Amino acid sequence: MGNIWGDYARTIIVGNGKVVEDIGLIENPEWKSGLQMEEKLHIELLRFATKETTFEELYYHMNRYIVENGFVNLDFMGNLGHSIVKTKGDRVYIEKGNMTKLADVKYFTFEPHIAFPDSKYGHKKENIYYFDENGLMEL
Question: CA 123 to CA 39: how far, in whole Å?
Fold first, then answer.
């Protein structure tokens, strides 16, 4: 709207013509496992990230966590999210080589795009995070 843009990426499962809100009710075991892993990734982010964590440290930790849990990162650069800014060119990415601290940006997305190796299905869940006096918070 106006000069502000954004996106919101999330895998949504539709069964029998309705959105399946409860992951436990998803019938396809691969879809269920993928969305359960997305939930685990966001929990791990909240457990791992501190104000001193760099974007690069988060990149390596979460990509290792993805692989250790039997998934692959589908992002062609391995990125997992970015800062929220007014101009796309000003984004700071969760990528290797980025020594910016997470707390140095006001808000950032965490949006891993994952799949089982050789699967035709991918899964994604995007949330926005920020730090306050209590630590990392989900917007």
Answer: 11
According to DSSP, the β-strands at 127-132 and 135-138 are antiparallel
What is the distance between the alpha carbons of residues 32 and 22, in angstroms, rounded to a whole number? 10
pTM of the model: 0.90
89-117 residue pLDDT tens: 899 999 999 999 999 999 999 999 999 99
User: Quick one: three-class SS letters along 12-74?
Assistant: CCEECCEECCCHHHCCCHHHHHHHHHHHHHHHHHHHHCCCCCEHHHHHHHHHHHHHHCCCEEC
Contact at 8 Å (CB) between 38 and 82? no
CA–CA separation, 106 and 44 (whole Å) = 20
> Are residues 121 and 114 in contact, defined by beta-carbon separation less than 8 angstroms?
no
Q: Which amino acid, one-letter code, is at 103? A: A
